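Show me any protein, fold above all:
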Amino acid sequence: MLLVDDDALVRAGLRAVLGTELDMEVVGEAGTGAEAITQAASLDPDLVLMDIRMPEMDGLAATASIVGDAGPRVLILTTFELDEYVYEAMRVGASGFMLKRSSPEDLVRAVRVAASGDSLVLPEAMRKMVERFGKSGEMAARVRKDIERLTGREQEVLRKVAKGLSNVEIADELFVSRETVKSHVTSILTKLGVRDRTQAVIAAYESGFIQTAN
């Protein structure tokens, strides 16, 4: 993974926590968004831990550039939970966010969740961010049409994804296999034209498919 933060002490702390995990390897560090783009291109990490506010180029712009069509997953590091920059970063491709005050154990768990492709955004946090920072208009209308293309079962799965359920939990609730749920999620992402579960949930909220008041 690549560690991106303008504070060298923060990067050192992250490396100390994550570098001891047997299934994790820190391949590089960057202190600005511009450096992050360069390092991500040369090192090809599976995951980028990205600070959101940095000099030269912030984490939002860097995330948009790094994720691309097949870039690494990005996990945002932030001081504030309800942050417009964090929400925008998730809209452009970040898989979720982690508070800097989180415990080392929670950080390790978050990295594993992000690397697996699951969303790290709790349903309540997502609802609050959509209410405060959500977009609407032409894009929302397009997404509504895309959601209408989903089968009834796919729409059901999307609602459960928005509740924060994992594939295993969804499979248990629907009495189907984990592989079936994975297939539904893949189809949902393809039909909505989004990168992962986080963007699918954002699309579901911003299109009105899921109501923030619910």
Residues 178-192 form the longest helix (15 residues). The two ends are 37 Å apart (CA to CA). The first strand starts at residue 2 and ends at 4.
